[in-house]
Design a protein that fits this description.
By secondary structure, the chain is an alpha+beta fold. The protein has helices spanning about 15-25, 90-95, 105-125, 145-150, 220-230, and strands at about 35-45, 50-60, 70, 75, 125-130, 130, 150, 160-165, 175-180, 185-190, 200-205, 240-245, 250-255.
């Protein structure tokens, strides 16, 4: 942990979040790449007065964010669009996920949330969903553990809380969608996913008010602030969903 967290990624007002992100940007001299779609899931434990969130520390051998604490997540795959679900996303979330997207569709919107659920299982062994009343086919090999366990993803359990696009000139770029779900949505836990040779070498539950003490990326700290605001509203689907993107070398915070 950091003894003295970076003040640029601490708590603050909505108005200064984009400015603080701008101040964290490093070298932007790499060739401009097209951002890859990715999705992240924040699990929340609200069994105590101060909610806790799950973060995992990435392996030091990773080229992208080595050693940093992050939320489980990864790339969105084409076959995520074909995976069935027990219930759809909330309509308001679906509408927002289809904004500022090339060839938007209901399947593409659902795929973002499905990818977040799949990646969470791949990195932590935590499976979100509901018991399937009937057998269902896996849309890809990565989804076979769900089909074999008879657990079908339940998209009604997740909330779309934010989106962020890596600035141009960075060696890796992602168009990331951030989701949140209550830990009660986890229906199965498998061991052997976290450890010295895994993508996440450890996972920790941290009070949301203390998570910034970890070595976390700037955008992770900002999203935690956005999550705190949403929790204060009772996780309302009417709460604004921000999009963070860079324009003219400065981050903007726009509302979807």
């Amino acid at each position: 942990m950091k003894d003295d967290p970076d003040p640029m990624v601490g708590s603050g007002t909505v108005d200064d979040r984009a400015e603080r992100l701008t101040r964290t940007i490093r070298d932007q001299s790499s060739p401009n790449l097209r951002p890859r779609d990715s999705a992240t899931l924040i699990l929340i434990d609200r069994s105590e007065p101060v909610p806790k969130v799950l973060l995992g520390r990435r392996h030091e051998r990773h080229r992208f964010l080595p050693g940093k604490f992050v939320f489980p997540g990864g790339r969105v795959e084409i076959k995520d669009r074909l995976m069935p679900s027990a219930a759809p996303l909330h309509q308001r979330d679906t509408e927002r996920l289809m904004q500022r997207v090339k060839r938007p569709s209901l399947a593409k919107a659902a795929a973002y949330a499905l990818a977040a659920i799949r990646e969470t299982y791949e990195e932590t062994g935590l499976m979100l969903g509901a018991p399937a009343p009937n057998p269902f086919p896996a849309s890809a090999e990565d989804w076979e553990p769900f089909a074999k366990a008879g657990i079908i993803p339940d998209l009604s359990a997740v909330h779309f809380i934010g989106r962020a696009i890596t600035p141009p000139g960075r060696p890796r770029r992602f168009d990331s969608r951030f989701f949140a779900a209550d830990f009660g949505a986890v229906v199965r836990r498998d061991d052997g996913f976290v450890g010295a040779d895994a993508e996440l070498v450890e996972v920790v539950w941290m009070p949301i008010t203390e998570a910034r003490k970890l070595d976390i990326p700037g955008i992770t700290a900002i999203v935690l602030e956005e999550l705190q605001d949403r929790i204060a509203t009772g996780m309302s689907h009417d709460h604004p969903v921000p999009l963070y993107r860079m324009l003219h070398k400065r981050f903007l915070r726009e509302v979807l």
